[in-house]
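Sequence, structure tokens reproduced for absentees:
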Amino acid sequence: MSMFRTKRIYEEVAEEIRNWILEGKIKPGEKLPSEEELLKFFGVSRASLREAFRLLESMGLVETILGKGRFARSLPKVDLSSPTVFYETLIAREILEPMITKYAARCATSEDISRIGKIIEKVEERLDSAIEELIRYDQEFHLEVAKATHNFFLINITLDYLNIIRGLGENTLKVPGRKEKSFKEHKRIYEAIANGDEEEAFRADLEHVRNVKSLIEKLYGEGEEKRVGDALL
């Protein structure tokens, strides 16, 4: 008997596999279970399963290697020592993330809000934890916000972005008072999403990313790429 009862079965299958990847149950570069295993697990037709794979491949989450099988896509390797890449990343975040958060406030279900709220609770209890743990919670927070949009493209964009900037969080959170301020900013974003307030969610996230961007510029210095980027904005 099939696990799913919706008309678009392949989307349900794709969402489940996507969640395995986003939650780390299948690591980047790791081979996915075989078609036969997945057919047995989901109880769907081979046509639906292959359509799900086509959707996942279009989202950039899965890649097929001829003669070897299907794999979770390896994460992009980006050289943040390059000033151009460095500032392009900050600019992209400032443009995209507040809009993603605004859309999350529109689309979030009670389950989404609960998951985001639990991260806020954990951080509040563990503000004195090691920086590495706080970075993990920070990334979980932003990924859960993106997942609340229920939009493959926005989730995938966020996943790529978070993996590119992972290394930047350590130095920013070492700045005195930044851990506490970051928590307050995240809590404001969460409350806006929980209240379904799209405009407040946008404002809260925009303030958050601009604060982080400003701090990073102070830590790493400004360059010509930053001035060019600001001119484009």
Remarks:
- The first helix runs from residue 9 to 22.
